[in-house]
């Protein structure tokens, strides 16, 4: 049975990697902010139905400040920046840049949640930043647009770190599912408003393939993957599950090469590997705060 939950952890990362590919493909069919708005409207509805089926209650009005704050940073800001970045940066490179996210969670946890961070972990943060610099200097990132897109994706990682640190404040007040659903509902509002504005410059032109990609990001990547990761963490523990989050950059780069026929330069691969190595090295210490995927897990336990 243990292998079953390990497969859940691996499958969740594959589904999250697919989100980068789908976001890259959908840039031809709609604006990045419209994509994010549609995604979270659908995801919020699905999550709400799951909550109702489980008999839980989401205090949307009573706790609107908490849910709006988390939804704005996690669902609106993080996802909007991610999809925006994917209009300028290939999916494979974006996946490698996502390797910086665990370090962003660590830093945000230190600043916001006052988590203790050891010297070794700070050294690993420095290593990953070095990898980011190397990654920015290789391949497509030498183009001005791609450099800006890579910076946008780094800010997306930082916003997820802030979301994670803030979400820890409420982990004893709400169940993970309720917390995620409330954040998704409130986060869908600014996402939808910006998405409507985005229609003026990027009209929607859906095909069968892009429609399937949109359905994928709204269900498989937003709901199913989180629930699979949650099941794995609940059974194996966050300490065992945490290293699996470093599979995301690997799967994203691999799928981008195989399915989208993208290419990655040797410099980009080296930079991405250094980023992942820094994240893995930081994870060796038991004082590391809740990881990015653990925070994502907490959303749907």
TrEMBL record:
UniProt key word Lipid biosynthesis: no
Lipid bilayer topology: Multi-pass membrane protein
Transmembrane regions listed in the UniProt entry: 33-51, 63-84, 96-113, 120-140, 146-166, 178-199, 211-229, 241-260, 272-292
Keywords assigned: Cell membrane, Membrane, Transmembrane, Transmembrane helix
Subcellular location field: Cell membrane
Domain EamA: residue ranges: 5-136, 148-281
InterPro entries xrefs: AA-Vitamin_Transporters (IPR050638), EamA_dom (IPR000620), EmrE-like (IPR037185)
Pfam families assigned to the protein according to its UniProt record, in alphabetical order: EamA (PF00892)
GO CC field: plasma membrane
Family: Belongs to the EamA transporter family.
Name listed for the protein in its UniProt record: Threonine/homoserine efflux transporter RhtA
Phylogenetic placement of the source organism: Bacteria, Bacillati, Bacillota, Clostridia, Eubacteriales
């Amino acid at each position: 049975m243990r292998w079953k939950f390990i497969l859940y952890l691996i499958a969740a990362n594959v589904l999250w990697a697919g989100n980068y590919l789908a976001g890259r493909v959908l840039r031809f069919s709609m604006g990045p902010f419209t994509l994010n708005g549609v995604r979270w409207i659908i995801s919020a509805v699905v999550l709400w139905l799951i909550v109702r089926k489980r008999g839980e209650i989401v205090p949307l009005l009573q706790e609107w400040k908490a849910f709006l704050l988390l939804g704005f940073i996690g669902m609106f800001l993080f996802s909007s920046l991610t999809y925006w970045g994917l209009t300028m940066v290939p999916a494979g490179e974006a996946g490698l840049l996502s390797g910086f996210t665990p370090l962003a969670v660590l830093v945000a946890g230190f600043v916001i949640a006052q988590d203790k961070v050891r010297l070794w972990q700070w050294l690993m943060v420095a290593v990953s930043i070095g990898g980011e610099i190397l990654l920015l200097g290789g391949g497509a990132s030498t183009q001005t647009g791609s450099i800006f897109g890579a910076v946008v994706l780094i800010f997306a990682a930082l916003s997820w770190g802030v979301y994670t640190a803030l979400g820890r404040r409420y982990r004893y007040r709400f169940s993970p599912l309720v917390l995620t659903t409330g954040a998704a509902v409130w986060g869908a509002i600014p996402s939808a408003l910006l998405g409507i504005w985005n229609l003026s410059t990027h009209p929607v032109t859906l095909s069968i393939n892009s429609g399937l990609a949109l359905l994928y990001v709204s269900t498989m990547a937003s709901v199913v993957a989180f629930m699979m990761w949650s099941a794995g963490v609940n059974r194996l523990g966050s300490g065992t599950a945490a290293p699996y989050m470093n599979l995301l950059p690997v799967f994203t780069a691999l799928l981008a090469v195989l399915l989208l026929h993208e290419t990655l330069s040797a410099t980009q691969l080296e930079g991405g590997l250094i980023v992942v190595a820094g994240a893995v090295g930081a994870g060796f210490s038991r004082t590391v705060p809740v990881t990015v995927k653990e925070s994502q897990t907490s959303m749907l336990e």
